[in-house]
């Protein structure tokens, strides 16, 4: 029943040879490049901002990084414990994006971007979380549209992201102060020159 629903949703979303070429190219851009917002925003929040907000921003960065580490680990475990072929491996639908024929559930891209969006929703600002969640949904759509994932792969990524944020918060409650102190000390050592020059925040 679930597999039939998965396949039906996929066929509703999957592009075909008759789909507009511009839409396929746009979907490829979303699927391949939009995920780069993750390291970009993490770097910006850690390195720059108003002085009185830097500690709060870096706490968000660390908690988000913890959640992503947990989510990627869970995704790897689930993928190996419950292997599931990608649509094009099963000869289902149409594929418009080159991808290795590895396990599809849960989606790695979906896991990372949904974890990132949920982290900002929980720990940063509601508006930033909503914007990132919209971006996550766009990435999820694009990868199904292009034929490299099933819809439930993306739902799996969302659920893994939710669990990972919860686990990251638990780790932070136990070890947060120690983690922050050590990372900040390492940052000040590695970025001593840029900090001294005023290029980045202390």
UniProtKB/TrEMBL annotation:
Sequence intervals crossing the membrane: 22-48, 60-82, 105-123, 130-148, 154-175
Top-level taxonomic group: Bacteria
Keywords, alphabetical: Hydrolase, Membrane, Transmembrane, Transmembrane helix
Signal peptide positions on this chain: none
A Pfam family per the record: PAP2
Residue span(s) of domain Phosphatidic acid phosphatase type 2/haloperoxidase: 61-169
Reactions catalysed, as given in the entry: di-trans,octa-cis-undecaprenyl diphosphate + H2O = di-trans,octa-cis-undecaprenyl phosphate + phosphate + H(+)
UniProt-listed SMART domains: acidPPc
First-level EC class: hydrolase
Entry EC no(s): 3.6.1.27
GO CC, any one term: plasma membrane
MF annotations from Gene Ontology: undecaprenyl-diphosphatase activity
NCBIfam families given in the database record: PRK11837.1
PANTHER family the record matches: AT30094P (PTHR14969:SF13), SPHINGOSINE-1-PHOSPHATE PHOSPHOHYDROLASE (PTHR14969)
Name of this chain's protein: undecaprenyl-diphosphate phosphatase
């Amino acid at each position: 029943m679930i597999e039939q629903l998965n396949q039906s949703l996929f066929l509703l979303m999957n592009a075909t040879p008759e789909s507009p070429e511009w839409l396929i190219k746009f979907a490829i851009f979303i699927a391949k490049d939009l995920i780069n917002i993750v390291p970009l925003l993490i770097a910006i929040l850690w390195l720059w901002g108003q002085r009185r907000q830097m500690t709060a921003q870096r706490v968000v960065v660390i908690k988000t990084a913890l959640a992503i580490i947990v989510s990627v680990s869970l995704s790897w475990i689930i993928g190996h414990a419950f292997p599931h072929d990608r649509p094009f491996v099963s000869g289902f639908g149409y594929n418009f994006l080159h991808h290795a024929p590895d396990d599809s559930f849960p989606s790695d891209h979906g896991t990372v971007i949904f974890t990132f969006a949920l982290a900002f929703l929980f720990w940063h600002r509601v508006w930033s979380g909503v914007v990132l969640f919209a971006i996550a949904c766009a990435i999820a759509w694009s990868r199904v549209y292009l034929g490299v994932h099933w819809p439930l792969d993306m739902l799996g990524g969302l659920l893994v992201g939710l669990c990972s944020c919860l686990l990251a918060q638990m780790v932070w409650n136990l070890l947060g102060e120690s983690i922050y102190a050590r990372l900040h000390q390492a940052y000040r050592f590695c970025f001593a020159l840029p900090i001294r020059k005023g290029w980045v925040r202390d």
